[in-house]
TrEMBL record:
First and last residues shown, out of full length: 361 to 637 of 637
Protein name as it appears in the record: EAL domain-containing protein
Classification of source organism: Bacteria, Bacillati, Bacillota, Clostridia, Lachnospirales
Stretches assigned to the EAL domain: 24-277
Superkingdom in the source lineage: Bacteria
């Protein structure tokens, strides 16, 4: 360590790491406190069906506000919770809130067919994860077709037996799976063919890139064409303008999610949004 410290560049890296470690500790404390006090919130971002002309689903997104640190991004605290294992409890709390929301707000009577829930690979690696999901859903009389599980490519790349068993069990139960952030990782075609995905969510960066470069525009168009031929539902993330919406619809993407429509909002605001449409 002493040797490394002699090098200016590394000293800088160490200083940075120290800052990062301190920040992570603070975030970790905030997450723990929010769990203890039941202060984690779940917001909902609507997903628009172009064919139906209504919001037909929504993505549940966790929100954390700390009295000292303010709003903390899930991009910052989810990786920490994954490392220290808190994601297990957090994931259950989130799913519980989502199911209670579906039940209490009688979502079945609205245009919203299902809620998409993000599930971490760490959760999928838990034995009996699928049983816990079913228990929580049954507690609130939520039907299997009212929940969709979003996972990223990296979640299952290991192909661990437990991960596969959980996925297969939930698919058999009637839950559909969405592949999240498609295009940001390996965009492995083999993977799409062998995993039971119903929905492919195009990563916001490949959407934005398509409006910046001709090459990216071409690859996006053909990706959408291919996914349509495979009869997969395609959701575009990060739709921020009417121009993006129009072009995406033109090239065959029929579900839109993004700030052009709405940011993620509280459950009360989400219901108002659904009632207003
Ligand atoms: P994700 O699952 O890909 O979620 C989409 C992210 O894009 C959300 O960020 C959403 O607010 C943001 N977004 C949606 N539309 C737009 C847009 O038009 N413009 C821009 N700039 N951003 C947009 P958020 O809520 O900060 O979540 C970040 C990531 O944290 C999520 O990415 C997901 O990987 C993770 N995450 C969030 N909630 C949960 C959760 O409940 N459980 C787990 N395991 N992970 C979660
Ligand atoms: Mg997601
Ligand atoms: Mg995503
Ligand atoms: Mg993401």
């Amino acid at each position: 360590m002493a040797k490394r410290l002699q090098k200016g560049r590394i000293t800088y890296a160490k200083d940075y790491d120290l800052g990062k470690i301190k920040q992570d500790k603070a975030f970790e404390k905030a997450v723990k406190q929010a769990l203890d006090r039941d202060e984690l919130m779940v917001y909902y971002q609507p997903i628009f069906s172009v064919e139906k002309g209504v919001y037909n689903s929504a993505e549940a997104l966790v929100r954390l506000h700390d009295e000292e640190l303010g709003w903390i991004s899930p991009e910052d605290f989810i990786p920490i919770a994954e490392r220290n294992g808190m994601i297990i409890e957090m994931g259950e709390v989130i799913l519980d809130k989502v199911c209670r929301f579906i039940h209490d707000f009688k979502l079945a009577q609205t245009t919203v067919e299902y809620i998409e829930v993000n599930i971490s690979p760490v959760q999928l690696m838990q034995q009996h994860f699928s049983d816990r999901v079913k228990q929580i859903m049954e507690k609130y009389d939520v039907r299997p077709n009212q929940i969709n599980i979003e996972i990223t490519e990296t979640a299952t790349i290991s192909m661990a037996d437990t991960v596969n068993a959980n996925i297969m069990d939930l698919v058999q139960y009637g839950i559909k799976f969405s592949l999240d952030d498609y295009g940001s990782g390996y965009a492995n075609i083999d993977y799409i063919n062998h995993m039971p995905f119903s929905i492919i969510k195009l990563d916001k960066y490949i959407i934005w890139d398509a409006f910046k470069s001709t090459k990216a525009g071409i690859t996006l168009k053909h990706t959408i064409g291919m996914l349509n031929e495979l009869e997969l539902h395609i959701v575009a993330e990060g739709v921020e303008t009417a121009e993006m919406r129009d072009h995406l619809a033109d090239i065959g993407c029929h579900f839109m999610q993004g700030w052009y429509y709405s940011k993620a909002v509280s459950d009360q605001d989400f219901i108002r949004l659904i009632e207003m449409q």
